[in-house]
Amino acid sequence: MSWDEAFANRYDEWAAHMTADVAFYTELARAADGPLVELAVGNGRVAIPIARATGRPVIGIDSSPAMLRQARARAVDAGVQLDLRDGDMRDLALDEPAGLIYCPYRALLHLPTWADRRRTFERVAGSLRPGGRFAWNAFAFDHNSAVRLDGRRQDEPVPHAFRFSVGENRLDIVTESGAVSSMWWATKNEWLGLIDVAGLELEALYGGFEGEPFTDSSREYVFVTGRRG
Ligand SMILES: C[S@@+](CC[C@H](N)C(=O)[O-])C[C@H]1O[C@@H](n2cnc3c(N)ncnc32)[C@H](O)[C@@H]1O
């Protein structure tokens, strides 16, 4: 289990600082020809503005019933159409190939093993139209940050502590109530390997959502890939 249901309770607060990604994914959605799909859609934080900006429904897949409930309610409030599906991204299967599949807010890091990610990437590649794109972002792998965070407690935005497992390259966020969200960090080469084995092509690796080049000081991987061939 990499995402406790209890995280849904204050997700709005957790995610309040994360806004820079919305315009980035919205531009990709505007350019996409064909269905739009968000993996690990959560409460619709990104899918709702995309549906509003494009006037098109977004298919949102998530394995958390509590997050999906929030997404459903927020979509109704916003007056947009989301096609929400309770499911695991590792089992992605679409009736119609997608123009854009995207996975914001580092959610691919919730998959514990390389095999889980490979399976997800292969499913994504098999679910894209010709010319379709797959985009995601994740923390740049950085042992120094992990070591600094290990054991640290923070009150904002919701009281929590970090725990770093070197052996598992896993960072846990643990709330006061004991709910755990785990992220398994991946290196740039792991991401490039996944792109390769899945039959995707790297279009761009940015260091941020403004399209900054990825450099040694970048702390985020922002990947845009396409279906090969
Ligand atoms: C950090 S939230 C991201 C939510 C949303 N994409 C956003 O950007 O705000 C992580 C989400 O990943 C979902 N999740 C974790 N593992 C999953 C899996 N294997 N398949 C589908 N969803 C998953 C959780 O339920 C949670 O809603």
Question: What brief labels describe this structure?
Answer:
about 230 residues; alpha/beta; Rossmann fold; seven-stranded mixed β-sheet; four-stranded antiparallel β-sheet; 7 helices; about 30% strand
Description:
The protein has 229 residues and is of the alpha/beta class. It is 31% helix and 29% strand. The protein has a single domain (5-140, 185-227), classed as Vaccinia Virus protein VP39 (Rossmann fold). The protein has seven helices and eleven strands. The protein has a seven-stranded mixed sheet, sandwiched between helices. Helix 2 (20-31) crosses helix 3 (47-54) and helix 5 (114-126) crosses helix 7 (188-198). The relative contact order is 0.16.
List the helices and strands and how they pair.
Blueprint: H1 11-15, H2 20-31, E1 36-39, H3 47-54, E2 58-62, H4 65-78, E3 82-86, E4 98-103, H5 114-126, E5 128-139, H6 143-149, E6 153-154, E7 160-165, E8 170-175, E9 180-184, H7 188-198, E10 200-206, E11 220-227
Parallel strand pairs: 1-2, 1-4, 2-3, 4-5
Antiparallel strand pairs: 5-11, 6-7, 7-8, 8-9, 10-11
Helix pairs in contact: 2-3, 5-7
The structure holds S-adenosylmethionine.
CATH superfamily: Vaccinia Virus protein VP39
Task: Point out poorly predicted stretches.
Answer: none
Instruction: Report the top-level CATH class.
Output: Alpha Beta
- Main β-sheet description: 7 strands, mixed
**N to C succession of SSEs:** HHEHEHEEHEHEEEEHEE
Compounds present? S-adenosylmethionine
The rough form would be described as globular
Number of strands: 11
What integer is the average pLDDT?
95
Helix content: 25-40%
CATH domain topology: Rossmann fold
